[in-house]
Amino acid sequence: MDREARLRQALLARGAAWPAPLEWRGAVGSTNDVLKAKARRGTPEWTGVLADTQTGGRGREGRAWASPPGGLYLSVILRPRFERVGLVPLAAGVVVAEVAGEFGVEAQVKWPNDVLVRGRKLAGVLTESSSSSRGVDWVVVGIGVNVAVDQTSLGPLAETATSLHLEADRTPAVEDVAAGVLARLSVWYDALEGRPSQVVDAWRARAVPWWGRPVQVRTTHGVLRGTLRDVDEAGALLVDREEGGVQRVLSGEVTQLRPTGSGSRDT
Ligand code: BT5
After folding, report:
1. Does ligand 1 come within 6 angstroms of the Cβ of 111?
2. CB burial class (10 A; 0-12, 13-18, 19+) of residue 163?
3. Cα-to-centroid distance, 155 and ligand 1 (Å)
4. pLDDT tens sequence across 94-152
5. Where would I find the beta strands (DSSP E) of the chain?
6. 59 Cβ below 6 A of ligand 1
7. Given Cys at both, which of 43, 45, 121, 212 links 79, Cβ 3.0 to 4.6 Å?
8. Are strands 114-117 and 214-219 parallel, antiparallel or unpaired?
9. What is the C-alpha to C-alpha distance for residues 22 and 54, in angstroms, rounded to an integer?
10. Which of 192, 244, 205 is nearest to 109 (CA)?
């Protein structure tokens, strides 16, 4: 049986008969790019593209996503009818943390899109969207999870990254992780439509507990320092600025500062 068929079978075992095409490729540049091309041609919601490896796996802001064999590289297209599209990456983080939990690995989420185990990155989420005057046409949710990936294949990332293989008693099959992610994503998608505050609550419950701690947030507009207050109902980060006032951050990189405020990095 090929991987696509095994994936569909794993989905059925979870009671999720998938409503759209799922295409499992060998090596691609980036599953997000493959799916974005399909999105522009009108591919239906929930179409998925998966790959064994990526030669140009992407993170946010031009960063690279290491994509050795044994990882999950999955992109799914959503055509949301709801407003709070900013919550999609948070929901995806919750999804991956839940699925890691199914395999006995306790994971936390870090704003906006990281999934960490013991402070090391297990997974990342890259959402890309297209809008018109009618609103959001599509959102491509790209999820990368280190599954059957060992330290050698993580290479220079071995210090900061981890995998289900390194954390779990038994290394799960990539198809099973993919099925878990797709099935849970569809559940949380319904919540995004009807009860978005549930998504925020679930995310908060799994977040690294940095609330009230000094942080530095690097955004495209510069660096901001303050203490971490919360996320709001739209998924934006709220930071109490050092110089006073609350700053709402829509995208950026958060690092914890030591309480001395010396600027040295904790994580
Ligand atoms: C992310 O970006 O974390 C989003 C990663 C999304 C990858 C998926 S795979 C399927 C789909 N197709 C794509 O092309 N992308 C998506 P960001 O927050 O910018 O984090 C990138 C940083 O994570 C890098 O600069 C490295 O420090 C680290 N990193 C790269 N590869 C990693 C890996 N495999 N495991 C852990 N950390 C990694």
Report:
1. no
2. buried
3. 14
4. 999 999 999 999 999 999 999 999 999 999 999 999 998 888 999 999 999 999 999 99
5. 22-28, 48-54, 72-78, 108-110, 114-117, 120-132, 135-145, 214-219, 222-231, 237-241, 246-249, 253-256
6. yes
7. 45
8. unpaired
9. 17
10. 205
